[in-house]
Amino acid sequence: MNKNISHLYQIAQKESRKIIGLMSGTSLDGLDIALCEISGSGQNTAVKLLEFETIIYSEDIKIEIRKVFAKKNIDFEQLVVLNEWIGILHANMINDALKKWNIPACEVDLIASHGQTVLHAPKFLHQLEKFPNATLQIGDGDHIAVKTGIITLSDFRQKHIAAGGEGAPLAVYGDYFIFGKKGENRIMLNMGGIANFTYLPASLNPEETFVTDTGTGNTLIDLFVKHNFPEKSYDKDAEIAKNGKVNQILLYHLKDHDFFRQSFPKTIGPELFGYEYVQNAMLKSSQNTISVEDLLATLTRFSAETIAEAIQLAVKNTSYRIEDFKIYISGGGANNPLLVRWLKELLPCHFYKSDDLGISSDAKEAVLFAILANETVSGGAFNFGTKKGIPSITMGKISLPD
Q: Is 159 among the domain residues?
């Protein structure tokens, strides 16, 4: 037997596994590295976050990624070389983190790499009749495995699409296993570049559980901050937006898109919610002369209202009252005080951070990919039923170190 296959078999038999989860989202902030100790699988999964660090992307890295990010027309050579470069970059970041934590690579069982999304293209968005749902994350897993010496699982979203999904969101698989609680209605709301939530009813019935994108989270806010203030990458503490007023006419036109009328579950990315989307809304609403402060206030309100309306709709046709739900927030949007304040005004729920459940809100997505890797190696295809959007599968391609 190949020594790596033998090693993988031994890892699968262990009572607990040390798994590094990696996440780099559409906000292009950097690489989240979460070292987890995971035991069990499925609903018996237990996770302990041992170490966590976000390694910020330099401006040079962001510039290179933006050359292909969420664009239909690109330099194909740039995409090809980036796939290798990002893999090596992430591997070096992992090695640096392990050195900082004084943990030898041989003590880590697996790496779960999400990769860097460069294009998310569900069929309803690309509208090419003969082609299926599609998505692409770069940062080759073989490079990570070879450079770190650790068995690596990557490219998780492809199996989801192959099984009939749209490749996102994947959070439900981890959220259900470690955050679902019998007798308590929970919504796990993640506000990264795109916002999504996992609906976890008190029944914990997998047939009732689902996950969906709601629309933009931080992506438009960050985009127009960067456009108007090149030295800034985001609106820290909503300092700019708090000085503006919501333009209701523009807000109406921002919300006037078929995506918001689609049924759950659904996925989207910055391919729709980009600069052109806002420019079109400004043109239709004749609000081209809006101030930067008012624009950022309006974009923040846009995120808040579309998130809140999606959650209200999710609860509306159930036997539960929205007042009975606890909402646990994570992602960069959880640190935006204006966005959070408006959500609390719009939703009569109790709000918490995922930190209150023992997982840092900043680390949550990286942890969830570690859980996906754990399921692939040591668990199985948990049955979420037959409803759209949550195929009962395991995910991730396996790369061996040598």
A: yes
DSSP letters of 285-300? TT-TT--HHHHHHHHH
**What are the pLDDT digits (tens) for 271-309?**
899 999 999 999 999 998 999 999 999 999 999 999 999
Render pLDDT for 326-359 as a digit per residue (tens, 0 to 9): 999 999 999 999 999 999 999 999 999 999 999 9
Q: Binding site annotation covers 347?
A: no
75 is in an annotated binding site: no
- Please indicate if the annotation marks 258 as binding a ligand: no
**Which residues lie below 8 Å from residue 278, measured CB to CB, with a gap of 6+?**
220, 223, 224, 254, 295, 299
Q: How many domains does the chain have?
A: 2
Tokens 């690109």 sit on residue: 74
Domain holding 103, by residue range, is 3-170+362-399
Is the residue at 175 inside a domain?
Answer: no
Q: Are both 161 and 188 inside the same structural domain?
A: no
Alpha carbon distance 95, 98 (integer Å): 5
Q: Is position 28 annotated in a ligand binding site?
A: yes
368 is in an annotated binding site: no
Do the domain assignments include residue 184?
yes
- Judge whether 358 is annotated as a binding position: no
30 is annotated as contributing to ligand binding? yes
Q: Is 40 annotated as a binding residue?
A: no
Q: 217 and 295 in one domain?
A: yes
